[in-house]
Amino acid sequence: MSDIDEQELARIRNEEAIHDIYADDGSVRADFLAMVGAAIADRDVLFLRQHVARLHESELGDLLETIQPDQRLALVRLLGDDFDLTALTEVDEAIRLEIVEQMPNAQIAAAIGELDSDDAVYILEDLAKEDREEILAQLPFTERVRLRRALDYPESSAGRRMQTEFVAVPPFWTVGQTIDYMREEEELPESFTQIFVIDPTFKLLGIVDLDRILRTKRQVRIESIMRETNYPIPAEMDQEEAAQIFEQYDLLSAAVIDENGRLVGVLTIDDVVDVIQEEAEEDFMRLGGVGDEELSDTALETSRSRVPWLLVNLLTAILAASVISLFEATIEQIVALAVLMPIVAGMGGNAGSQTMTVTVRALATRNLDIHNAWRVVRREASVGLLNGAIFGLLIGLAAGLWFADPNLGGIIATAMLINMLAAALAGIMIPLLLDKVGADPAVSSSVFVTAITDITGFFAFLGLATLWLLQ
Amino acid sequence: MSDIDEQELARIRNEEAIHDIYADDGSVRADFLAMVGAAIADRDVLFLRQHVARLHESELGDLLETIQPDQRLALVRLLGDDFDLTALTEVDEAIRLEIVEQMPNAQIAAAIGELDSDDAVYILEDLAKEDREEILAQLPFTERVRLRRALDYPESSAGRRMQTEFVAVPPFWTVGQTIDYMREEEELPESFTQIFVIDPTFKLLGIVDLDRILRTKRQVRIESIMRETNYPIPAEMDQEEAAQIFEQYDLLSAAVIDENGRLVGVLTIDDVVDVIQEEAEEDFMRLGGVGDEELSDTALETSRSRVPWLLVNLLTAILAASVISLFEATIEQIVALAVLMPIVAGMGGNAGSQTMTVTVRALATRNLDIHNAWRVVRREASVGLLNGAIFGLLIGLAAGLWFADPNLGGIIATAMLINMLAAALAGIMIPLLLDKVGADPAVSSSVFVTAITDITGFFAFLGLATLWLLQ
C-alpha cells in the first residue's frame, strides 16, 4: 500500500461517519472494506466502534458476508459487546453458525437479552441443543419462558417467527388510561403499530391501530373503538400460509393465538416480507434444479446437493437415448436425421418449459385452480398447435433446403408440430397433476416435461422417417 | 339443479354472512360461486349487497377473476355504487381494463373519489388519456391536483405508487398539540403509522412513529422526539429500488420527496410487498422464457409473446445441429454415437441451468458482487469438475456395457467431464457478463448457456470419437 493510500485512509478513518457503505452497483464499497480490513489488522477498536458498530443490522450483515472469512470472527471479537447480534439474522446460515459457534455462550446470552424475541429465536433455533439450553439458562425467567414457548412451536411456523413482546389492554380501559399506561410503562416493545384487547385469561377480543387511538378522545372506552380481528394467526400455522394472509389482506401485523384463542405473540410484516422472499427464492431455485444451497457453501456441499437432480435427469436421458436406439437402422440410412433430431427435441423442451413456468407460478400464487384449469389447458393446447405450426413451417423449410430434400422438410415439420403440442400438454398437465397429488410442482415438473418432450421428439421424428423409408 | 340444492342455496343465501369464501385449496368455494351466479342471473341485488359488497377488496378481486367473463360486468352493474373499485387493483390488467372501459366515466369518478390516492392512480394509469382526463375533470380541485402530480411521475416510479395523503406537523408543536390536532382533524388518511415533521415549505425534517408519540408526555416538543429520515425515497426512484430499501431497512413506510426535498407522499409496505412479488415473478418467468403474460391472455396473445424466445432458441439449435453435421461421416460408421450424443448435451444443459439459476438469483438479490464473484466462479468450476467426474464415470460404465465397447465408454466419459465443466463456467460467466454490460441476466442467460452446452457436448463427444477412429 502506497503512502498516499495510507494518508487517504487515515483521513477518511477520522471522518465523523461513513454515510453510505454501498457502491452504485449495490455491493459494499471497496474503500470501506479496505478500511475495515486495515482496522481489523491493526486491532483498531476505536475505528470499528465508530464506523462499524453504528451500521444498520442489515449493513453489518452485508459487511460480514463480504469480508474475508478469517476477518469475520476477528471483527466480532474486536467489537465485543458493541457487536449487534441482530446482524446475524441477515447473513447466510453457514456464516451465522460459524460466528455463533465461536462466541462464548455467556456473551451470546448477554446479547440475546437485548434482542426482540423473534430475532433471538431466529438465532437460537439453529444452535446445538446443549448450547441453546446453556444460553437459555442464563436468561431472566420471563424471557427464558417466552423464548422456550416460541421454540416449542414447529420449525417454520408462525409461532417461531412471532414476537412475544406486545401491548395488550383490557376492553374497559379508556383511551386516556391506555395512553397514560404507555407513557409510564418501561417495558414496551421497541416498536409497535397496534395494541391488542384481551380478557383476563389473555383471550383476544380485538385490535386497535395506533392511529385510531390518536384520533379518539381520552374518555372513549377501548372496546368501542376496537375492531374484530378477522385474521388471527394460529401459532402452529405454517409461515407461508401466514404470509399469504398478510399479502391478501395487506396486514402490517397480526395477533398470533394458541389453540385456546389466547394471545401469545404478534407477527409483523417485516418478518413476513422475509418469508415471501424465501418462498419466491425456493420456487425459483427448485425449478432450476437446485435446492436450498447458499452462496457460501463449499464445492463439495454444492456438488452433493445437485447430484440427485442430475441423476434423475441422467436416467430420463438414457430413456430418451433408448428411443433413438430403436431407429439405429433408419439413422444408418439417413445420417441427416441424427443432425436434425436434437432440434425437434430441444424446441419441444423449450416450449414445454415456457408452459411449465407459467403453470408452476400460477399454482404458487393460487391464480390457477379448478375453476380455470380447463380453460388454461385448452389455451395452452392452442398455443402449442399454433407455435408448432409456425416453427414446424420454419424448420421444415430450413431442413428441406439444407439437405435439399423436401420430404425430410415435411417429416421434421410434422414432428415439430406433434412435439410442440405434446410439450404444451405436458407443461400444464404435469404440474397440475403433481399439485393434485400433493407434490411440489416446482421441484419435479421439469424432469418429467423434458422426458416427455425428448421421447416424443425423437419418436415422432425418427418414427415418421422410418415410415417414409418403408414406403 | 335439483330441488334440494335450491333449498340448500336458499337457506345459505339467507344466512347473515358467508364467513370464508375459500375452499381448503385456496380457490373460491364452488357453492359460493353457484350462489353468486344464481344471484346475478336473478338480479338479486339484495343478496349481492349483503354477501358480495361486504367482501374484502382482495376477496372481491378473486371472485371477479373466478366468475365467468360475462358475469363480471353484470355483477359490477348490479352492485352499482356498492362496488368497491379497490378490488380492481387486485385483478389481472386485462380484467381491470375490461371492467373499467365498460363503466360510465361519471361512476368511475364518483368511486375514485373514495379511494386512497395510490389505488386511484393504479386504476387511472392504465386508462386511455381521454377517459382519464374526463374522470379527473369531475374530481374536486385538491384531489385532481394530487392525482395529476402522481400520474406525472414515470411509470413504475415511487411517485406512482405513493399515497399523497399523509399527516405532517411543524417541529415546534408539542405531543399534546399533535394529538389534539389528530383528534379534531376530519381529513386524515384512512390509516397511518407515522407522522412527518416539515418546515413551512414542506421540506422534510424528520419522522415520528405513532408509538413514540403515545409513549411521550404531552408537553414534549415534536422536534425532540423526531428521528432523522435516513431513507427518504425520491419520487423519481424506480419502485424496485425503493422496494430494496424497504427490505434492507425493514421499513413500514417511507417519505417520498421531490427533487427539492419537499414531502410529496408516503410509500407504504403493502404496496412494496406487491412490488416485491411482481419482481420475483418477473425473474421467475424470464428464466423460463416467458414475458409478463397473464393467465387471462388469449391463445393468440400468448403465442405471440412466446415466439421471439423460441425463435432465438431455434437459431442456436440449428447452430448446434450444424456442429453435428461436421461429423456425419463418423456417425455413419458408429450409429451408437447418435444414440448417446443427446445424453452428453442434455446433462450439460441441466448442470448449466443449475449454476445459472443460482447465479441469476444471487445477482437479483445482490448477494453476488465483485467481492465474491471470483470465489464463486472457482467453486462452480470445482463443482463442474466433480460432478463431471461422477457422471462421466456413470455414463461411461453404462454406455460401455450397453454397446459392449469400453472405448466408447471412455470417450463419452471424457466428453461428459468436458461438457460439465463448460456448463459450470457458462452457467456463471454468462449471467455475470450480461449483468456487467447492463442486460438482464434472467432474460437471456439460458439461451446462451444451452447453446454452449449443446455445442460443447456435441463437439467434444463426436470430436473425440473421430480422433479415436482416425487412430
From TrEMBL, chains A, B:
Protein's cellular compartments: Cell membrane; Membrane
Residue ranges of every copy of the CBS domain listed in the record: 162-224, 226-282
Top-rank taxon, per record: Bacteria
Principal subcellular localisation of the protein: membrane
InterPro entries: CBS_dom, CBS_dom_sf, Mg_transptr_MgtE_intracell_dom, MgtE_N_sf, MgtE_transporter, SLC41_membr_dom, SLC41_membr_dom_sf
Listed transmembrane segments: 307-327, 333-351, 385-404, 410-434, 446-470
Keywords: CBS domain, Cell membrane, Magnesium, Membrane, Metal-binding, Transmembrane, Transmembrane helix, Transport
Topology within the bilayer: Multi-pass membrane protein
Cited function: Acts as a magnesium transporter.
Family assignment from sequence similarity: Belongs to the SLC41A transporter family.
Subunit organization: Homodimer.
Identification of the protein by name: Magnesium transporter MgtE
Organism: Pseudorhizobium tarimense
